[in-house]
Amino acid sequence: MEKEFVKSITAMDKDFAQWYTDVVTKADLVDYSSVRGSMIIRPYGYALWENIRDALDGMIKETGHENVYMPLFIPESLLEKEKDHIAGFAPEVAWVTHGGSEELAERLCVRPTSEVLFCEHYKNIIHSYRDLPKLYNQWANVVRWEKTTRPFLRTLEFLWQEGHTAHETDEDAHEETKRMLDVYATLLEDYLAVPVVKGQKTEKEKFAGAKFTYTVESLMHDGKALQSGTSHHLGDGFAKAFGINYLDREGKLQHVHQTSWGMTTRVIGALIMVHGDDRGLVIPPKVAPTQVMIVPIAQHKEGVLDFAYGLKERLSGAFRTGIDASDKNPGWKFNEYEMKGVPVRLEAGPRDIEKNQVVLVRRDTGEKLIATLDEVEEKLGALLTDIQQNLFDRAKELLEKKTSVAENMEQFKERLESNPGMIKAMWCGKRECEDKIKEETGATSRCIPFEQEKVSDTCVCCGGKAESMVVWAKAY
Amino acid sequence: MEKEFVKSITAMDKDFAQWYTDVVTKADLVDYSSVRGSMIIRPYGYALWENIRDALDGMIKETGHENVYMPLFIPESLLEKEKDHIAGFAPEVAWVTHGGSEELAERLCVRPTSEVLFCEHYKNIIHSYRDLPKLYNQWANVVRWEKTTRPFLRTLEFLWQEGHTAHETDEDAHEETKRMLDVYATLLEDYLAVPVVKGQKTEKEKFAGAKFTYTVESLMHDGKALQSGTSHHLGDGFAKAFGINYLDREGKLQHVHQTSWGMTTRVIGALIMVHGDDRGLVIPPKVAPTQVMIVPIAQHKEGVLDFAYGLKERLSGAFRTGIDASDKNPGWKFNEYEMKGVPVRLEAGPRDIEKNQVVLVRRDTGEKLIATLDEVEEKLGALLTDIQQNLFDRAKELLEKKTSVAENMEQFKERLESNPGMIKAMWCGKRECEDKIKEETGATSRCIPFEQEKVSDTCVCCGGKAESMVVWAKAY
Ligand SMILES: [Zn+2]
Ligand SMILES: [Zn+2]
């Protein structure tokens, strides 16, 4: 037996950023490369992404959307057609200036998002109300020239889906904007076990070119918020800039009303920072690449490996099942699959075989259970359901614990300091107050929640008449 | 009822290139954009790609490979590490020189293929024979700066998978090279119903940096060949350039042996040009986005639409089933779904309902069948199997009909002229003869087939001693 040292990670409380870096690399999710700010998504990380992608893709198709694929490059003149949009994205795009040895007559940007390409296409294919709605989605890589990067959270290139739809009326587009935000909330809460706050972005924080932006915001273990998915009502601004017209039911020429919405590999960062602990990753069963990992005990003894492989065969139909029959010792293996956040470890040794049983150990609580062979599927299924629910409940509790109310700036600062997390506070609606809060506290407006509470009568910043309750937080 | 004009396409025999363009655009597979040489893959085209991708991804995973994701950009210095490789790709890459408003210190190429990124990563993660083999695959977009482009066949950007593996021995890598070529052959023959010739590329035609390249070549309706998938034995050239070493079972430091293999959206071009006819696309049932399209007849009559929707509901569990209940007339619909290559049309009108039956019309032969309601699943299933087989048989027959033997250059030219297609001819192995054949006939060496036949004793070009039989053809 080869001696293997247990990998160790920095404690969360000691250095959360280092804890995160340790987890993503030591759990084999990513590796770095010589390409600045880009990451290699390793097999374990990519299998996790495939599960998330497939769940989301299923919901996107169920709600009537079709997948398409648009070009990677956007000619500069096309990007410039919608003025707010180009102003928002120009500072952070990568430019292709040469093809082979030739300099290009017009430079091409590597798509940071694909609104303008969809608009150009929609102009070609939409003519009548009969062509509407157009409900398209694309899975793609996009590039934004970020200065500071961290795996999953902020990278030069990332993977995402971007939905782009066109509708007859503003109301139809509004319905779509809400519908897709709900799909994102379902993915986060029901699959990733990450509770979210749903709401609208302020004017300052909305998407470049949008009428308004809806968002789902989640809260990490360190009290920072993470924007986890956004859905934009684009109004008819792009339609006017691109001339996307249709003949309506009365034969009148109208502009279409559009939406766009996106969710990215960033949600893996949310999953890690919401559920992870000092032993590593904790992955919710619904998206876990491996739901149960079989670790044979005293595997050199007769019958153990046969028994373990028999279980693997038997369980694989119903659960994503792994087995580690390598010659590393069980202690190393326990540590490794805890680090990788596998929801359940199944131990099977000579004494278990004798008693016709196995031991199930849950990752979230460390609790051990005995299951006899005839009840193993049933108990395992129930355990996975319970783990999924427990992760959500724990995260929900944390979100509530880390949410404070502030009525004035003194309270705001004190509470953000003593209990880092989300601050609910009233806002007058003025940009100056929003800017001032950021400047003085480091917290930004995360959203104006759909579920409003009147926590005070006056703006937390200026004391003026309050317009709405805003959730504020420091954010990734 | 709105009047709709039937879309028409150019006849194949009249202008094959125009026929192809008509089919890809009028069957709604692609659209053009203002991005030169790139295509928009529309919902119908993308659904076809998803089916092909999922079938191939399943086989790639079954053979033990794992999916990963590598960065889009490659620093110039990294691309330059393997000399043959950079020489092959430098003339056709796109260069990013600016990020936002800053000029980059080192320019980045948009990946034309990812060997060097995998090599850099393998150097990091491979240390011992215990780490081998590494069997990785990636689904991605790549860019090659092509001058002349055509949808699917040759585009600036295309979608593909690229496998990259590392092994202990040259033999292991050789086995892998063969295994993945067989996977490609299976995908083409069993799913796309496209028969292939398997063989090895000549030195001239092999991949830049490879020891040798295996290929599957298929033959289009117009007698031109299409390289449909390649599998490269990379030897240890990249390992030496990148320093990818491992401690072998005897504790000695060794270079790994590598392979890479790729298949692209190009195979959609093969499918179109092998099976299509003057009425449009013909899609093999196994990858068809819609396998059966229900067209209600006299749908304004009572009960017809209910009946048709009932069938849709009933058949959807077992078959990818569509329904067109729009107010376009049945003639338009027949034409539309023939154009789109849907394998089976199901007609249901008042008289069919009365008789408890439906009419099934196959796209490949136009043959009509009556199926009573209690046998519709069974007959439909058998029909789809039969269509799949018939498409392959027809294509195989065409391939054989369009394959000639030539013993000298006069025969070569005459046969290529009178029966455009593949020419089997002996070759001495010299580059000069290969070049001369291309210059005089326009045909290139497609491969040295694994199944050799001695069609003559001497080289078709120089009359020298023949080394092997080569298949030659004009190619896309
Ligand atoms: Zn205020
Ligand atoms: Zn010769």
UniProtKB/TrEMBL annotation, chains A, B:
Print the domain comment field. Consists of three domains: the N-terminal catalytic domain, the anticodon-binding domain and the C-terminal extension.
Q: Which UniProt keywords apply?
A: Aminoacyl-tRNA synthetase, ATP-binding, Cytoplasm, Ligase, Nucleotide-binding, Protein biosynthesis
**Which PROSITE patterns is this protein grouped with?**
AA_TRNA_LIGASE_II
Top-level taxon:
Bacteria
Where in or outside the cell?
A: Cytoplasm
One GO MF term, please?
A: ATP binding
Record's family? Answer: Belongs to the class-II aminoacyl-tRNA synthetase family. ProS type 3 subfamily.
- Sorted alphabetically, which InterPro entries does this protein's record hold? aa-tRNA-synt_IIb, aa-tRNA-synth_II, aa-tRNA-synth_II/BPL/LPL, Anticodon-bd, Anticodon-bd_dom_sf, Pro-tRNA-ligase_IIa, Pro-tRNA-ligase_IIa_arc-type, Pro-tRNA_ligase_II_C
Read off the Pfam families from this record. Answer: HGTP_anticodon (PF03129), ProRS-C_1 (PF09180), tRNA-synt_2b (PF00587)
| Gene Ontology biological-process entries | prolyl-tRNA aminoacylation
Q: Which reaction does it catalyse?
A: tRNA(Pro) + L-proline + ATP = L-prolyl-tRNA(Pro) + AMP + diphosphate
- Record-given protein name: Proline--tRNA ligase
Give a short account of what the protein does: Catalyzes the attachment of proline to tRNA(Pro) in a two-step reaction: proline is first activated by ATP to form Pro-AMP and then transferred to the acceptor end of tRNA(Pro).
Gene source species: Neobacillus piezotolerans
Enzyme Commission designation: 6.1.1.15
Has the keyword DNA-binding been applied to this entry?
Answer: no
Which GO terms of the cellular component aspect does the record hold? Answer: aminoacyl-tRNA synthetase multienzyme complex; cytoplasm
